[in-house]
Write a structure and sequence with these properties.
The protein has about 100 residues and is mostly helical. Helices cover about 65% and strands about 0% of the residues.
Length: about 100
């Protein structure tokens, strides 16, 4: 992982994508983020707010497995947590639009 401190998200995002070059890693991010949304909607709709504790487990759990097992790198969230969080949502949207591939 780069030790460079990025000042803007626009500058950071190409690095973020380079840290997600493995399609299985990107798929793990996609699964985790989809689960986050599903848990969030279900917990709020059913008023089962204790389920919200599972959000970090679903989101980070799948992403970190993708990094440690498939990408073989440390998640960018360890050094730039805010930009990495934003990057995950941007990549998620780009997977849906086909700009970033998982298959």
């Amino acid at each position: 992982m780069s030790s460079k401190k990025y000042e803007t998200f626009k500058e950071f995002y190409p690095f973020y994508l380079s840290e997600h070059s493995n399609k299985v890693c990107r798929l793990m991010h996609f699964i985790g983020t989809t689960l986050v949304l599903a848990i969030l909607v279900y917990a709020l709709a059913s008023q089962q707010y204790k389920l919200l504790w599972f959000l970090p487990l679903a989101g980070y759990g799948f992403a970190w497995i993708g990094h440690f097992v498939f990408e073989k790198n440390k998640p960018a969230s360890f050094k730039q947590p805010l930009f990495s969080f934003i990057g995950d949502w941007v990549m998620y949207a780009q997977i849906w639009t086909g700009k970033v591939k998982i298959f």
